[in-house]
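Consider this:
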Amino acid sequence: MQKAMLMVRIYLSEADQGRKKNLLSEIMSILHDRHKVHGVTVFRGIAGFGRKGEVHSADLLRLNVHLPLVVEFFDEPAIVEAALATLDDLVPTGHVVSWPVQCHTNG
C-alpha cells in the first residue's frame, strides 16, 4: 500500500543563527514540538559552497568551519505545508526544496 507524502530538504550552514538560538535547533524544535512530523534527519556535509561561491570544507588546518547542513523530513502534505509556513520567516529564501513521494506502508 502507498500513501502520498511530501519530502522536504532544507539547506543550511552550521553558522546560521535563528531568532533565539542556532537555526538548526530552532528548526528541529518547530518540526518536533509544534508540527510533530514523522521524523527528521540532519546531514552534515564535509564540503560545500553557496550562492557567494565561498568553499567551506572540513580541514584540520581550519578551526572555524561553517560546514553545510541538510535537514530532511517527510509527512502528509497538510502537515508539511503547515510546517513550511511556520519556517518561512526563519529559513532564508531559496533554501527549501520539496517534492511529492510515495510512502510504502504495510496493510
Notes: The first helix runs from residue 23 to 34. Residues 2-104 form a domain with the Alpha-Beta Plaits fold (CATH 3.30.70.120). The chain has a mean pLDDT of 88.
